[in-house]
Structure formats: structure tokens, C-alpha cells
Specification:
Number of helices: 7
Strand content: 5-15%
Distance between the termini: 34 Å
Bound molecules: zinc ion
Number of strands: 2
Length: 180
């Protein structure tokens, strides 16, 4: 299996590590819990039709970084992830190709603890689904090598969004900053 040249850890694990967090960290997280301060308006959500979901999967597949093809066991697994993304985002919004001046809100599942956009996916090498942060999935599939290298150095938590809205899932709004 491909290994990152710069480090011995495989990039997929670096990107999607997780599962249970140590109890102490969980407690800390609770205290830091963000207020739900998203500008998202749930009532405004317009779902994609099946045809529109298929079209989005096709369009986004073309922009997937080769690393995604390397790490998903099959093209269907990648498609399944893209399908969940397409279903959790308004039909007029595009987190990869959309206008950077506008946030792309997530209307799918969120984590209970800290209200982060999340999907369930089977990670390569695993047999059952687990919860994965949407912005980490997006970065894994679509980020340029340069951005990806920076993001891999950040803590294995949901990425901070530079627009300040954690329910925004615009790829271009993922913060590359290492602190704050
Ligand atoms: Zn945003």
C-alpha cells in the first residue's frame, strides 16, 4: 500500500483516525463545546433529486484526487461517500466547485457532542461503518497536495472553517492555519 514519503503513517489513517477518544479529552471537549452559531437555515434546504444526486457524483468524481482512488477499496465506495455529500447539501450548492464567496451549508447528520457535519462511511481496511467528519472527508478526496500536506499536520479533529461556521462544508473555507 502507498505510504506517504514524508512520514511513515499512511495518509488515510492520518486523515481519518478516530473512533473512541480518551475520556479526558471528551470532558475537555464538552467544556469547549461550541454554541450552535451557524447561519444555516434548515428551512431553506432543497434536496437534490435522484438525477441531480447522480449528476453531482459524476461531476465531483472528475475532481477527486488520485489519492482517493488509491484508498477507497472500490469506485463504488467513493461514490457512496459522494452520494451522502450530495444528499446533505442544497441542490443549488457545490462544496467543491461553488463560488468561494458563499458558504455551503450541511443539512445531513451532525455529531451529538459538538454539532459537526458528519457522515457514516466504511473506512478502508475496516468492515463496519463509522462516523467521519465531512470536512475531513472532503479534504481527503479533493484537496490539492499542498493543502493536504498542511491539513495532515493539524489535530485529528474536525477542521476549523475559516468562515467561522462549522456547518459550512465549502472546501475552500477549510482553514489551513495551524493555530486558532
Ligand atoms: Zn463557509
Amino acid at each position: 500500500m502507498f505510504q506517504c514519503r514524508m512520514c511513515s503513517e499512511n495518509p488515510f489513517n492520518a486523515m481519518f483516525a478516530g473512533g473512541g477518544k480518551p475520556e479526558k479529552e471528551k470532558e475537555k471537549k464538552k467544556k469547549e463545546r461550541r454554541k450552535s452559531s451557524s447561519r444555516r437555515d434548515a428551512a431553506a434546504f432543497q434536496a437534490r433529486s435522484d438525477e441531480e444526486v447522480a449528476a453531482a457524483i459524476k461531476r465531483w468524481s472528475e475532481y477527486a484526487h488520485p489519492r482517493a482512488n488509491d484508498f477507497f477499496a472500490s469506485p463504488e465506495q467513493l461514490e457512496d461517500v459522494l452520494r451522502q455529500l450530495a444528499k446533505g447539501i442544497d441542490k443549488n450548492d457545490d462544496p467543491i466547485l461553488g463560488d468561494e464567496g458563499k458558504c455551503v451549508y450541511w443539512y445531513g447528520d451532525v455529531t451529538k457532542e459538538d454539532l459537526q457535519a458528519a457522515i457514516r462511511m466504511v473506512k478502508p481496511g475496516e468492515s463496519s461503518e463509522s462516523v467521519t467528519y465531512v470536512n475531513r472527508v472532503l479534504a481527503f478526496i479533493f484537496a490539492t497536495d499542498e493543502s493536504f500536506d498542511k491539513l495532515m499536520k493539524l489535530p485529528k479533529e474536525p477542521f476549523k472553517m475559516s468562515c467561522g461556521d462549522q456547518l459550512c462544508v465549502h472546501l475552500a473555507h477549510i482553514s489551513l492555519a495551524t493555530a486558532g
